[in-house]
C-alpha cells in the first residue's frame, strides 16, 4: 500500500489551519493510506474549490476541525446522516 505524507499541503492547495496542523491528530498520524485520499476531490464549481469528500460536498477542513476539537468519527458521521 502506498502512503502519502500529510504534514504539508499538496502543490496548489492551502496548508492546514494552525489549529489543525499543530494538533495531536497530525502529530501522531503523519501518513495516510493513498486509498483514502482518492475520496477527496477539489472542483472550482463545488464549495468554491475547497477539498471535499467526493460526492458528499462536505469540506475536508470541516471534518478535520471537528476531529481536532475532540469529536469522534461516529459523532461526525451522526452530524451528516
Low-pLDDT runs of 5+ residues are 1-5, 21-29
Based on CA atoms alone, the radius of gyration comes out at 13 Å
What structural category characterises the helix and strand content? Answer: alpha+beta
Query: Order of strands in the sheet with the most strands?
Result: 3-4-5
CATH superfamily of the domain at 40-81: Winged helix-like DNA-binding domain superfamily/Winged helix DNA-binding domain
Strand proportion: 5-15%
User: What general form does the structure show?
Assistant: globular
> Can you tell me the CATH class of the domain at 40-81?
Mainly Alpha
The biggest sheet, with number of strands, parallel, antiparallel or mixed sense and barrel status, is: 3 strands, antiparallel
Helix content: 25-40%
The CATH level-2 architecture of the domain at 40-81 is identified as: Orthogonal Bundle
CATH topology of the domain at 40-81: Arc Repressor Mutant, subunit A
Order of helices and strands: EHHEHEEEHH
Task: Give a short summary of the structure.
By secondary structure, the protein is an alpha+beta fold. 36% of the residues lie in helices and 15% in strands.
Features:
three-stranded antiparallel sheet, Arc Repressor Mutant, subunit A, 5 strands, two-stranded antiparallel sheet, disordered N terminus, 5 helices
Amino acid at each position: 500500500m502506498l502512503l502519502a505524507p500529510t504534514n504539508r499541503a499538496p502543490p496548489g492547495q492551502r496548508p492546514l489551519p494552525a489549529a489543525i496542523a499543530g494538533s495531536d491528530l497530525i502529530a501522531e498520524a503523519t501518513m495516510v493510506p493513498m486509498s483514502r485520499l482518492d475520496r477527496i476531490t477539489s472542483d472550482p464549481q463545488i464549495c468554491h474549490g475547497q477539498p471535499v469528500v467526493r460526492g458528499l460536498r462536505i469540506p475536508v477542513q470541516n471534518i478535520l476541525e471537528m476531529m481536532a476539537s475532540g469529536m469522534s468519527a461516529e459523532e461526525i458521521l451522526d452530524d451528516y446522516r
